[in-house]
Amino acid sequence: MAGITDILSTIQNGVVAFNNLTIQMKGSFLNIFSQITSLQNGPLTSGNVATQADEETATSVNLAVTPGRQQFHPSAAKAWAIWTGSTGAILASYGITSITRTGAGAYTIVFSTAFSSANYAIAGMLTFTAGTSGFLEINTQSTTQVTLFAVNTTPAVFDPTSAYLVCYGDQ
Question: d(Cα 106, Cα 84) in Å, to the nearest integer?
């Protein structure tokens, strides 16, 4: 059986011939196949690859996105981390330079790339022992770092087992 490469290579003037089957394509369906064929038959060039500006406006539906440009899209997480509550030791991260535990349940997270403004979204959560509950509270937020508190329901600052953070915004 022929693969997609064989099928696409037979497209000419909106007609696909495959195993004695002929399909006539029209309109936007033909346009989609033409775009796929052009990407398949040649290298990615500046004419068919998204730029940083294309990613930031997030409007194109016919440009290829390379790994080095994906992070500029508004939906992409710009920074995230998982760390140990008692030490601030980073277990896994992206876009984070450091996490410093400044006291019980208090953390300063420094970003490897500054945000364009302090108006970026932060989401976080905690893990802790059974019978305990809490949340992350933003103390201060700047373009280069954020200071957070792990707060229980008392409310009091405490060291969770681990903490999770993700940030979205323009950098």
Answer: 12
Listing DSSP states for the chain in one string gives ---HHHHHHT-BTTEEEETTEEEE--HHHHHHHHHHHHHHTS---TTTB--HHHHHHT--SSSB--HHHHTTSTTS-SEEEEEETTT--EEEEESEEEEEEEETTEEEEEESS--SSS--EEEEEEE--TT--EEEEEEEE-SSEEEEEEEESSS-B---SEEEEEEES--
User: Model-level pTM?
Assistant: 0.69
**β-bridge partners, 6:** none
Q: Provide the pLDDT confidence category of residue 67 given band limits of 50, 70 and 90.
A: confident
pLDDT at 140: 97
- Compute the average pLDDT of residues 5-32: 52
List domains and CATH numbers for the chain.
4-70 (no CATH), 79-168 (2.60.40)
Q: What is the mean pLDDT of residues 30-44?
A: 56
Tell me the C-alpha distance between 35 and 150, whole Å: 50
CA of residue 119 relative to chain centroid, distance: 17
- Are 162 and 85 in contact by the 8 Å Cβ rule? The answer is yes
